[in-house]
């Protein structure tokens, strides 16, 4: 007798199982403090099988070979199938972007090679002097490494003579994995923004926890982070141990004290936290507990907010850089995203439109009432 398949049995499950077993041969295992390595390997095989089945069903999932070790580590930590599906879709989008970039790069290389051949052929047939880069020219090419040295030297000067600013990296316990990864991206944007400014801050990243996702992602993208010659101040120590308490000012949107002007003698603290899932005043509580002065940006004096008043870390740094240069809040607030705010002039114009609409509605109703009263009964 032929044994019937169950309803939940997928027709390609056997084939996928064989593929999964073949792919797992020789692959590295992931160490975990709480889970056995063998259990992780078994779970990884199950996930590889799940990916293969979903791929054959036509779903948007990445190829197993494209998943990196750190992505596998995050994938193994997900508990629900819905979370995995969302992460599969994200990895598929990343894979498609990389594939598109690869195709674009290959086409560009072909165009460059073709153009080079045409130029070499034209130069061979031309007896005159050729003007341009690498030929007869008074200008030298400026390499990217030269620009890096120039910007890094500017940061070194800021470390010696610049105004101090602190980024507090102690909020990992209040963020999920996605928010911590976003925080790491914003910290990299802060580094690039500060480095390219004409008068950068001497930024200190304090309370760094290198065992958490934020610092792991930062180390991944800034590979020279711990090199002594790299101009990036990062420490596990608290800013309370590095600077006098009376000079510290914690910037938090939850306090009631507005910042009226930029004081170069003060050391301002920006909290490195992405709080999309929670809007609790964590920074306010921390500053109160440590007995620090607090201030918030006077955003309400310039804007009416359509949504939340929270700004990203790099937006806060851009505002502080402009305040240090000009001490003009009007100029500094150009870095506030326009999608979040309505200016006072726009709000006044909108209020006037609403008044006119209400007046028209009242007059229209009054006219109708008069007409109805004149009709014979």
UniProtKB/TrEMBL annotation:
InterPro entries: MT_TRM10-typ (IPR028564), MT_TRM10-typ_sf (IPR038459), Trm10_C_MTase_dom (IPR025812), tRNA_m1G_MeTrfase_euk (IPR007356). Transmembrane segments: none annotated. Residues 1-36 are annotated as: Disordered. GO terms for cellular component: mitochondrion; nucleoplasm. It is found in: Mitochondrion. Residues 151-343 form the SAM-dependent MTase TRM10-type domain. Residues 1-10 have a biased composition (Basic residues). One of its GO terms (molecular function) is tRNA binding. It comes from the Eukaryota. Keywords: Coiled coil, Methyltransferase, Mitochondrion, S-adenosyl-L-methionine, Transferase, Transit peptide, tRNA processing. The keyword Transit peptide applies. One of its GO terms (biological process) is methylation. This is RNA (guanine-9-)-methyltransferase domain-containing protein 1. It comes from Anopheles culicifacies.
């Amino acid at each position: 007798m032929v044994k019937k398949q169950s309803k939940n049995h997928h027709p390609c499950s056997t084939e996928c199982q064989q593929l999964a077993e073949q792919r797992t041969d020789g692959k590295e295992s992931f160490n975990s403090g709480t889970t056995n390595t063998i259990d992780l390997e078994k779970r990884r095989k199950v996930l590889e099988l799940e990916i293969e089945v979903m791929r054959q069903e036509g779903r948007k999932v990445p190829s197993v070979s494209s998943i990196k070790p750190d992505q596998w580590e995050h994938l193994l930590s997900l508990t629900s199938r819905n979370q995995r599906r969302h992460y599969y879709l994200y990895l598929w989008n990343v894979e498609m972007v990389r594939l598109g970039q690869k195709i674009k790069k290959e086409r560009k290389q072909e165009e460059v090679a073709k153009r080079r051949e045409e130029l070499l052929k034209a130069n061979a047939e031309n007896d005159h002097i050729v003007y341009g880069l690498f030929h007869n020219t008074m200008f030298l090419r400026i390499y990217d490494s030269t620009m890096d040295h120039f910007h890094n030297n500017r940061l070194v000067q800021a470390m010696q003579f610049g105004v101090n600013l602190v980024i507090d990296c102690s909020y990992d316990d209040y963020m999920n994995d996605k928010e911590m990864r976003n925080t790491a991206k914003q910290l990299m944007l802060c580094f690039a923004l500060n480095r390219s400014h004409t008068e950068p801050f001497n930024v200190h990243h304090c309370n760094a926890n290198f065992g958490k996702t934020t610092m792991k992602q930062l180390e991944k993208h800034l590979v020279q982070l711990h090199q002594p010659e790299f101009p990036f101040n990062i420490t596990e120590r608290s800013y309370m141990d590095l600077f006098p308490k009376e000079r510290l000012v914690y910037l938090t949107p939850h306090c009631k004290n507005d910042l009226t002007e930029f004081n170069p003698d003060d050391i301002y603290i920006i909290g490195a936290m992405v709080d999309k899932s929670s809007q609790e005043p964590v920074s306010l509580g921390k500053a109160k507990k440590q007995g620090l002065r607090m201030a918030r940006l006077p955003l309400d004096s310039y804007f009416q907010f359509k949504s939340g008043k929270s700004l990203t870390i790099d937006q806060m740094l851009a505002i502080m850089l402009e305040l240090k240069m000009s001490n003009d809040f009007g100029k500094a607030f150009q870095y506030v995203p326009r999608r979040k705010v309505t200016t006072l002039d726009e709000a006044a114009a909108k209020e006037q439109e609403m008044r006119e609409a209400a007046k028209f509605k009242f007059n229209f109703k009054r006219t109708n009432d008069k007409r109805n009263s004149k009709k014979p009964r």
